[in-house]
Design goal:
6-stranded parallel sheet, binds flavin-adenine dinucleotide, binds NADP nicotinamide-adenine-dinucleotide phosphate, 7-stranded mixed sheet, 2 domains, Rossmann fold, 455 residues, alpha/beta, FAD/NAD(P)-binding domain
Length: 455
C-alpha cells in the first residue's frame, strides 16, 4: 500500500509524454498524479504537427492519448514552455519527479557551404508549415522553380516529396493548412529529386511509404534501373538484411520497370550522391553533389565514399531532410552531438555520469530522432519502470518548492487546460466537418488562445 500519491511533471505532450503518462497513471503502488507541461496550446506533438496530413489513419493514434487524458490524476498545462515560463529547478522543487519528453525540436545540419542561402530549407520547416504549427505560418516557400531537391532517404524525405507532388483532389480531404494546399497546387515544380548519399539497400524509408510514391495521382516516379545494379557490399548487406530492406529493393525494381504515364510532375529517386555546396548568389540556383561509391567498413556497415566525380544539379529550392535534432533546455543535462539528454535507460545523468535523482527522459530526447509512434511506448515504459522503482525505494527527493500553478499565475502565464484544448478541438473538427475534412486547424497563436479561452 502506498502512503501518498507521488506527483510527476511530464514535459511535452507528444507520444512519449502520453505513453509515459498512461503508464504512470496506471500505477497503484505508488499512486501517481501527472501534470503534463506543453509549450503549445495543443497536445500530441508530431502526431499533430509532423505526421503527414494525407495519412489520417496514423493521426488517429491520438485517440489513445485522449483516453489517457481522461484518467483521474491527469492535468494538462498547455502554453507553458519549460525554460521560459518555468525553470527546470522549479519543476524539480515542485514535483517528486520530472520526466522530459520534449522531442527533437530542430533539424540536423549538413554543414556545407550555402546551406543557409534563401531557398535552402530544413524539412522540419516545411513539415511544420503544412501541418499548421503556429510558429511556422509566416514562412513563404517559393515553389515557382521547376526542380526541387530533397536531400535524404528517410520517411520524412518521402513525406516532403509526396506532399509537394499531391494534387488538389488528394489534398482536399486532409487537414493540410489552406495556405499550404493553395501553394502546393499552384506550384511550378515539375521534378522533385530525392537524393540519397548511399544506395537503395541502405535507404531508411519503409516499404508502405515507398510503395505509396508509386500511387500518386499527379506524379510519375522515376528510378534509374542502373542504380539498382548492386555493388558487392550492398549485395552482401541485402543477403543478411530484414524483410523491410528486401521489400524496399523489390518495390524500387517494380518502379524502375514502369513506363512514365506522363503525369504533370515526376519524383526522381537518385542514390549515391552527397551534397557538397548549395550554389547561388542571392538564393538557391543549383546543388553541387559528389558521386559516392559504397564500401563496407570493418564492422560490415556500408558507407559512402566520395569519388572525384562531381555534378551540378540546377534547382530553385532545396529541402534538407537528414534528421531532426534535440534542443537543450536551461539547467537540464544535454549532449550537443547526439542532441539528446544523457541517460541510462531513461534515468538522466548529470555531468559526473551519475543519475540525477528524480529526473527522467523518454522518446526522441532520450534516444535520438528515430522510431515511429509505437516505438515510444516501449521506450516510455522502460523509463517509467525505473521511476516507479525509485519511488518505491524512497530514492526520489521530497518536493520542497512552490507549486507551478502559483508560479505561473504570478507570472501571468495563460495556461491552456485540457478543457481549453477540447474547445480548440471542437472548433477545428466542426470547421472540418463542413468541408469533409478531419479538421481545419487553427494555426495562429491568437486563434488558438482565443479558442481555448472560450472553454
Ligand atoms: C515529419 C514526421 C513524420 C512522421 N510520421 C510518422 C508516421 O506517419 N507514423 C509514425 O508512426 N511515426 C511518424 N513519425 C515519428 C513520430 O512522430 C515520433 O516517433 C514521435 O512523435 C516522437 O515522440 P516524442 O514524444 O519523443 O516527440 P514529439 O512528438 O516531438 O513531442 C515533443 C513535444 O514536446 C513539446 N516541447 C518541446 N519543448 C518543450 C518545452 N521547452 N516545454 C514544454 N514542451 C516542450 C513539443 O511542443 C512537442 O509537443 C514522424 C516524424 C516526423 C518528424
Ligand atoms: N510514415 C512513417 O512511418 C514515418 C514518416 C516520417 C517519419 N517517420 C520516422 O521518423 C524518424 C525520422 O525520420 P527521418 O527521415 O527524419 O530520419 P532518418 O530515418 O534517420 O533518415 C535520415 C536520412 O538522412 C540521411 N542523411 C543523414 N545525414 C546526411 C548527410 N550529411 N548527407 C546526406 N544524407 C544524410 C540518412 O542517410 P544515412 O543512412 O546514409 O545516414 C538517411 O537517409 C524515422 O524513424 C522515420 O521512420 C516515420
Amino acid at each position: 500500500m502506498s502512503v501518498r500519491s507521488f506527483r510527476v511533471a511530464v514535459v511535452g505532450a507528444g507520444p512519449a509524454a502520453f505513453f509515459a503518462a498512461g503508464q504512470l497513471l496506471a500505477s497503484e503502488d505508488p499512486a501517481i498524479e501527472v501534470d503534463m507541461i506543453e509549450r503549445l496550446p495543443t497536445p500530441w506533438g508530431l502526431v499533430r504537427l509532423g505526421v503527414a496530413p494525407d495519412h489520417p489513419n496514423l493521426k488517429t493514434a491520438s485517440r489513445v492519448f485522449e483516453k489517457i487524458a481522461q484518467r483521474p490524476g491527469f492535468r494538462f498545462h498547455g502554453n507553458v514552455e519549460v525554460g521560459r515560463d518555468v525553470a527546470h529547478d522549479e519543476l524539480t522543487s515542485a514535483y517528486d519527479a520530472v520526466l522530459y519528453a520534449n522531442g527533437a525540436q530542430t533539424d540536423r545540419r549538413l554543414g556545407i557551404p550555402g546551406e543557409d542561402l534563401s531557398g535552402s530549407w530544413a524539412a522540419t520547416e516545411l513539415v511544420a508549415w503544412y501541418n499548421g504549427h503556429p510558429d511556422f505560418q509566416h514562412l513563404s516557400f517559393d515553389l515557382s522553380h521547376e526542380r526541387a531537391v530533397v536531400i535524404g532517404n528517410g520517411n520524412v524525405a518521402l513525406d516532403v516529396a509526396r506532399m509537394l507532388a499531391l494534387t488538389r483532389e488528394e489534398l482536399a480531404p486532409t487537414d493540410t493548412t489552406d495556405a499550404a494546399i493553395e501553394a502546393i497546387v499552384a506550384s511550378g515544380i515539375k521534378e522533385i529529386l530525392v537524393l540519397g548519399r548511399r544506395g537503395p539497400v541502405q535507404a531508411a524509408w519503409t516499404p508502405t511509404e515507398l510503395q505509396e510514391m508509386g500511387e500518386l495521382a499527379g506524379a510519375d516516379v522515376l528510378v534509374d534501373p542502373a542504380a539498382l545494379e548492386l555493388d558487392a557490399a550492398s549485395e552482401a548487406e541485402l543477403a543478411g538484411a530484414s524483410n523491410i530492406v528486401g521489400r524496399n529493393v523489390e518495390i524500387l525494381r517494380e518502379l524502375a520497370a514502369r513506363r512514365p504515364a506522363g503525369k504533370p510532375r515526376v519524383v526522381r529517386l537518385r542514390f549515391q550522391g552527397s551534397p557538397v555546396t548549395v550554389l547561388g548568389d542571392e538564393r538557391v540556383e543549383a546543388l553541387e553533389i559528389v558521386h559516392n561509391r559504397l564500401e563496407a567498413d570493418s564492422s560490415g556497415r556500408v558507407r559512402a565514399v566520395a569519388t572525384d566525380e562531381r555534378e551540378v544539379i540546377p534547382c530553385g529550392i532545396v529541402f534538407r531532410s537528414v534528421g531532426y535534432h534535440g534542443v537543450a533546455l536551461p539547467g537540464v543535462p544535454f549532449d550537443e552531438t547526439s542532441g539528446t539528454i544523457p541517460n541510462t535507460d531513461g534515468r538522466v545523468l548529470g555531468g559526473d555520469g551519475i543519475p540525477v535523482p528524480g529526473v527522467y527522459c523518454a522518446g526522441w530526447i532520450k534516444r535520438g530522432p528515430t522510431g515511429v509512434i509505437g516505438t515510444n511506448k516501449k521506450d516510455a515504459a522502460e523509463t517509467v519502470e525505473l521511476l516507479l522503482e525509485d519511488a518505491r525505494n524512497g530514492a526520489l527527493p521530497k518536493p520542497s518548492g512552490r507549486s507551478i500553478d502559483e508560479l505561473l499565475a504570478e507570472r501571468g502565464v495563460e495556461v491552456v487546460t485540457y478543457a481549453g484544448w477540447a474547445a480548440i478541438d471542437t472548433i477545428e473538427r466542426s470547421r472540418g466537418e463542413e468541408q469533409g475534412r478531419p479538421r481545419v486547424k487553427l494555426c495562429t497563436w491568437e486563434e488558438l488562445l482565443a479558442a481555448a479561452r472560450s472553454a
